Amino acid sequence: MRPEYILRRLILFVVVIWVAASLNFILPRLSSGDPVRSKLMQQAATGGAAQPGIESMVEEYQRKFGLDKPLWKQYLTYLGDVATLDFGYSISNYPETVVGIMEDSLPWTIGLLFTTTLLAFAIGTVLGALLAWPRSPRFIQYLFPPLLTFSAIPYFLLGLLLLYLFAFKVRWLPLFGGYTPGAFPSYSLSFATDVFKHSLLPACSILLASMGFWALGMRGMMVTVEGEDYMTFAEASGLKGRTLFFTYAVRNALLPQTTALGLSLSQILSGALLVEVIFSYPGMGSVLYNAIRQFDYFLIQGIILTIVLSVTICTLILDIVYPLLDPRITYRRS
């Protein structure tokens, strides 16, 4: 791969990050909500008494968070903070920092989404390849209707169904949370078992829906690959069915799947937002949902920019790795 191509990709990477950061700054401020005022009014309401100095408190906190400055000054300050990955304090959870909140929620989202994404990719890809292969056992074809059904059901709807059946009706699994309320997080077998039980329902909802998606995608690519000339030539050369399946069909059909996997892994940080909200799972999706509800500009900016960074970095890596996966791909000008 030529150095000038990598340089162009890096310049494009910087431009994409700048545009995304700018939109990330502008869009939350288009709403008419005042995060400081709404938070202080909420605290005053819980106290049950009128707060005569509420306006002066609003002005003081706006000055503390820099919200009293002109918008262009806020923008320049924001770009400087982005360059150093310093997103400041959370407005709704002051004095906690945005980075600290993300550090607390990231392990939950990565542990749940990373595991389910890889499992769904592996199982769905294998099943999709077998569904399209004409020499597969006949019973494999009976898996197509349920896989098609699962691929059409959104994560959150499947999560609600599983929640009703296994947590509300038969009560085999917990209703919500990442662990039992009141439990103290520790590196122990009992706490790990508790976390595992709480993660089963959200994991199953994501796994079942994703598995159908990967299976249908792989099946479509396998059908396309089976009609290629090199497959006909390899079969006419007398190669064994296993060699045809793995070396020629699966290997060539995996490239689009790898692209989708890279993009899916890059979006893990955002989490399956509605699934986490439904199960009150303490991941990035729930944190982002609460930040949007409370107009927490800094927390929204930090999470969204982290997601954008992960997506663009994974896309850049995929562009560089493509020629290694398939030698037919080249970025040289003809």
Question: CATH homologous superfamily of the domain at 108-284 - what is it?
Answer: MetI-like
Query: How is the main sheet built?
Result: none
CATH architecture descriptor name of the domain at 108-284 = Orthogonal Bundle
List the secondary-structure elements in sequence, H or E. Answer: HHHHHHHHHHHHH
Number of strands: 0
CA distance, first residue to last residue? 14 Å
In terms of DSSP E residues, the strand content is under 5%
Mean pLDDT across the residues is: 77
Low-confidence segments, ≥5 residues, pLDDT <50?
none
Could you walk me through the main structural features you see in this protein, from its secondary elements to its overall organization?
- This protein is an all-alpha fold and 334 residues long.
- The chain contains 13 helices and no strands.
- The protein has a domain of 177 residues: MetI-like fold, CATH 1.10.3720.
- Helix content is 72%, strand content 0%.
Compact overview of the structure:
This protein has 334 residues and is mainly α.
Question: What is the fold's blueprint, element by element?
Answer:
Blueprint (H helix, E strand, L loop, with lengths): L2 H27 L5 H13 L6 H12 L5 H13 L14 H35 L11 H9 L2 H15 L19 H38 L2 H8 L4 H26 L6 H6 L5 H10 L3 H29 L9
Helix pairs in contact: 1-13, 2-3, 5-8, 5-10, 5-13, 6-8, 7-8, 8-10, 9-10, 10-13, 12-13
